[in-house]
Design goal:
Elements lengths: L10 H60 L7 H14 L3 E8 L2 E5 L3 E6 L10 E6 L4 E12 L2 E8 H11 L4 E6 L2 E3 L5 E2 L8 E7 L6 E6 L3 H9 L1 H25 L1 H11 L3 E10 L5 E12 L3 E3 L1 H11 L2 H16 L10 E7 L8 H11 L6 E7 L9 H13 L2 E7 L5 H7 L4 E4 L1 H4 L6 H16 L3 E4 L5 H9 L4 E3 L7 E2 H8 L3
Parallel strand pairs: 13-15, 15-16, 16-17, 17-18, 18-19, 19-20
Antiparallel strand pairs: 1-2, 1-6, 2-3, 4-5, 5-6, 7-8, 7-11, 8-9, 10-11, 12-13, 12-20, 12-21, 13-14
């Protein structure tokens, strides 16, 4: 049997769950990769900034050493010391020019010899470094000036911006790297800027030198994280998409499995696979056929005939039992209505209903349509109340049974004596028949207690003036006992098994 019950879901819910099942591992994986990429980029900028500081410190060590050697010469005649100034330029690879200062006046330069220029200590960050955008010799070319002052003596050594921009360009090949000295900063293209240091939106890292008055900023432009992920993680992207598809398929299959009972029942209903089978009911006295109970069977295309106990509970839970019963009534009318004019007396047709049928008044219209298909007065429609679900005596329920009785529909309690609600139904609803459960009938002649219960039910029905039907009659002994005790109608394998409509009509003509 292909039914395993689980909760039914709407189609839109299933689609959403399937999509989420597929997206969840992808989004989670992308989040992890995004975090990992950001972490890798942060480590990269930190290492790059530290390496740039190391390189700049080495360059400034070179210029500072030149300045320390020249400071003692400050105050001497420029003609006497200019060769010493030029010697430092020659010996020091990063030194572009050297200058001597006396009492804050630059008076001797390695480039010009005697030279007069006032020195403003405020131009120098922490009194030592000044990032300039060129000088009269090389305008618009970056210079980093190092100042060393001891009393009135002082020395200035300049570092060519070409070397600085080279470090920014080569070390920060994939990183935006900036050198900041006071309010000015140098970019990798060798240009000095006076505005605020730009924000580096991805993995920004600012590191000051522990020895000199400058700061290095490293980072990446916006979108670098995604560019890094595209360049470094393509195989992982494919793997994430694969996992997402697999997860989505698993979610879809699990949902399909979990909702398969209701879907399969709905499919079977639309395919008209639920068909009526008829089991005869006979008079207790003459054993003449007086009616039939209409039983639902599922003619499954693969499984064949499916027992009702395997699918009726699912139908009741899913709410499909109502349209399934309506279809059963319509098929029954199509089969039996054409021969109803030949019935010698009203023929009883019993159809099971559940609590689901009693939630509104649609059953009244279904019964009215059913009765209208038959010759007037040729049948009695008997609705048999099953007790798998409790039927509550609400205002709607009471109105329903009142209107059904007004139509001439009779009410029977099925499997009387086995359900907790049987006596309650007798008190709350206007019942016409009791149907004795086959478990009591089967114990006739075998179990004294069951026989006493059976006798009590028969006696109760007589006192309440109710018709009584015994189910599950299989032996002559049982039939004789029930007839002797005044049971009105008998039903069971002794008189006929449930059979398809065509077989039942053919057999009916012989009874």
């Amino acid at each position: 049997m292909p039914l395993t019950f689980k909760t039914r879901r709407k189609r839109s819910t299933r689609i959403v769950v399937t999509v989420l099942s597929g997206l969840l591992p992808i989004l989670l994986g992308f989040s992890i990769l995004y975090w990992q990429a950001g972490r890798a980029l942060s480590q990269s900028t930190q290492l790059t900034a530290e390496e740039a500081i190391r390189q700049f410190d080495l360059m400034l060590d070179n210029t500072a050493e030149a300045a320390r050697e020249l400071v003692p010469l400050a105050g001497q005649s420029c003609n006497d010391v200019k060769l010493a100034l030029r010697e430092q330029v020659t010996r020091r690879p990063f030194v572009r020019s050297t200058n001597l200062v006396w009492d804050d006046n630059l008076y001797c330069s390695s480039l010009f010899g005697d030279y007069q220029e006032k020195i403003n200590a405020g131009d120098y960050t922490q009194g030592t470094l000044w990032l300039m955008n060129g000088n009269p010799v090389t305008p618009n070319t970056a210079l980093l000036v190092y100042r060393l002052s001891e009393g009135k003596q002082g020395a200035l050594t300049t570092l060519d911006g070409y070397h600085l921009s080279n470090v920014l360009r080569l070390i920060g090949r994939k990183t935006v790297l900036l050198l900041q000295v006071g309010p000015s900063w140098l970019s990798a293209d060798g240009k000095v800027h006076k505005d605020a240091l730009p924000l580096l939106p991805v993995a920004e890292s600012k590191r000051p030198s522990s020895r000199y008055a400058f700061t290095v900023a490293a980072g990446f432009p916006a979108g670098e994280t995604w560019r890094y992920m595209r360049s470094e993680y393509p195989p992982l992207f494919s793997l994430l998409i694969f996992f997402g598809v697999v997860s989505g398929l698993i979610g879809h299959v699990l949902q399909k499995r979990s909702s398969s009972p209701s879907h399969e029942l709905q499919r079977a209903l639309e395919a008209a696979e639920f068909v009526p089978y008829f089991q005869p009911v006979v008079h207790g006295t003459n054993k003449k056929w007086s009616g039939t109970e209409v039983l639902m069977r599922w003619n499954h295309p693969k499984e064949g005939l499916v027992r009702p106990d395997l699918f009726i509970p699912f139908a009741e839970h899913s709410g499909l039992i109502v349209p399934m019963t309506r279809s059963l009534m319509q098929q029954t009318a199509q089969l039996l209505a054409p021969v109803s004019s030949s019935f010698e007396e009203p023929f009883h047709i019993g159809i099971n209903i559940t609590a689901s049928h009693c939630k509104d008044l649609e059953l009244v219209e279904d019964c009215r349509e059913f009765l209208s298909a038959f010759a007037p007065g040729s049948i009695h429609l008997v609705l048999e109340l099953t007790e798998r679900e409790l039927i509550e005596p609400t205002a709607i329920t009471l109105q329903l049974f009142e209107q059904l009785h007004a139509l001439g529909v009779m009410i029977a309690i099925d499997d009387f004596g086995t359900g907790h609600s049987s006596l309650g139904y007798l008190r709350q609803f206007n019942v016409d028949f009791l149907k004795i459960d086959q478990s009591f009938v089967a114990m006739i002649g075998a179990d004294a207690l069951s026989r006493h219960i059976l006798d009590s039910i028969i006696e109760l029905s007589a006192k309440l003036d109710l018709g009584i039907v015994a189910e599950g009659v299989e032996t002559e002994e049982q039939s004789a006992y029930l007839t002797a005790h005044g049971v009105n109608f008998l039903q069971g394998y002794l008189f006929g098994r449930p059979m398809p409509g065509a077989d039942f009509i053919d057999a009916l003509s012989h009874h």
